[in-house]
Write a structure and sequence with these properties.
Elements (H helix, E strand, L loop, with lengths): L1 H6 L2 E6 L9 H6 L17 H9 L12 H10 L2 H10 L3 E7 L10 H8 L2 E7 H10 L5 H17 L3 E4 L1 H4 L11 H16 L9 H18 L3 E5 L17 H9 L4 E5 L4 H10 L3 E3 L4 H5 L3 H8 L18 H24 L5 H19 L3
Parallel strand pairs: 1-2, 2-3, 3-4, 4-5, 5-6, 6-7
The structure holds zinc ion.
Length: about 375
């Protein structure tokens, strides 16, 4: 099963670009964490992600598996950053990178830059909150101008994209009114936010009315272009209120998108794996991945993958790395996923629950076929 899964090409339906500057130890470790707060005398290598990074990435840089962190970082620094990217991202066996460009996009490679550096097909997924913030920075006269500017810019950007994405869970939590707001209400909220931006009391979009407007506008565009709306769920940022990021709290919005035939792809889903699998089972339009948590759980990833596979229909699961910044996270995402999937399917075969043929078809579906069905790639 392992060699069959290793031979499959993957569609990474949610990832980010890599940084191209040389990284010293502190800079490298900062990118190994979702909420980097260094603890004196401790290292980011001393956690599950650090263990699998040294196990699997060290040989790609010419070191033995389980190299020491200082040797790893020193060897990496001696190589040109482009060479690091080419070796690590270029050997993932991924065919398509679907890249979220809305997070710290000035610090990382664009989709074109990723294609140039790796030879892989890289396409854009547009983050709707980032578009609203971009338009606000242009200094619209009032809330109505903000709304119109957002609608026009999102429509334009959606044309070249393969999907749209929202981080509503991080900005307001899922626990908000899930009906589309009226125009007057949106314009009033826009007036208030622009004033707060001007006096420095707000720096980013957190207003639920404006985000609801963005979500329904995004839903309409996804319906038109026949591609998914991605929703970040659970683990992935430090500044979230986790209990209110349970995706089942967002059921009314998901149900509305089901009526519009808009696929909703739930990203990461940790620790709400069973809640996400439940939504994938009961809604025709819901897809799930475990994304970033594969790398962060490292040696325990087979158990995490097994949990979401308890209930998720085989035609509803996707692969993503959610790699950001480090080329290592792209490489590991694929490696850890392949190992975990082989482990889960091997167990099912050994217990006589499925045939090898069935296991291979499940692996192909999750690796790329499901993504190819819902994304225009
Ligand atoms: Zn992400």
């Amino acid at each position: 099963m392992q060699s069959y899964i290793d031979s499959l090409s993957l569609i990474d339906h949610h990832c980010h670009g890599v940084v191209t500057r040389p990284l010293d130890r502190p800079a490298f470790e900062a990118l190994m964490s979702e909420g980097h707060k260094p603890v004196a005398g401790c290292t980011q290598f001393d956690k599950p992600l650090g263990a699998v990074l040294l196990r699997w990435c060290a040989p790609v840089l010419g070191l033995p598996p389980h190299a020491e962190p200082e040797d790893y970082v020193a060897t990496r620094l001696k190589l040109a950053p482009d060479e690091v990217t080419r070796r690590l991202v270029g050997s993932t066996g991924v065919s398509n990178l679907l890249i979220d460009t809305g997070h710290r996009s000035d610090a990382i490679l664009t989709p074109e830059g990723m294609t140039h550096a790796t030879g892989l097909d890289a396409r854009e997924v547009v983050r709707i909150e980032a578009i609203m913030e971009e338009v606000a920075r242009l200094g619209p006269a009032d809330g109505a101008a903000l709304r119109k500017g957002f609608d026009a810019r999102l429509e334009e950007r959606a044309k070249g994209a393969v999907g749209l994405k929202s981080i509503v869970a991080y900005r307001t939590t899922f626990d908000i009114d899930q009906t589309p707001p009226g125009v007057a209400e949106v314009d009033r909220a826009g007036d208030a936010w622009l004033k707060a931006l001007a006096d420095g009391s707000s720096r980013r979009l957190e207003d639920p009315v404006l985000i609801r407007h963005a979500l329904f506008r995004a839903g309409e565009l996804c319906r038109t272009h026949r591609y998914p709306l991605q929703l970040h769920v659970g683990f992935g940022d430090a500044d979230i209120l986790m209990p209110k990021c349970d995706p089942t709290v967002f059921t009314p919005f998901i149900a509305q998108m089901e009526k519009w035939d808009v696929p909703i792809t739930l990203l990461h889903c940790y620790p709400f794996l069973r809640e996400a699998a439940f939504l994938a089972e009961v809604f025709a339009n819901v897809y799930v991945d475990i994304g970033v948590i594969q790398n962060f759980t490292g040696p325990s990833a087979p158990r995490v993958l097994a949990e979401i596979m308890e209930l998720t229909p085989f035609y509803k699961q996707l692969y993503s790395s959610d790699a950001f910044g480090l080329a290592e996270l792209h490489f590991l995402g694929a490696r850890v996923f392949r190992n975990a999937l082989a482990s889960v399917l091997h167990d099912w075969i050994t217990r006589g629950e499925i045939t090898v043929k069935k296991a291979e078809s499940i692996a192909r579906a999750i690796a790329s076929e499901n993504a190819r069905r819902i994304y225009p790639v």
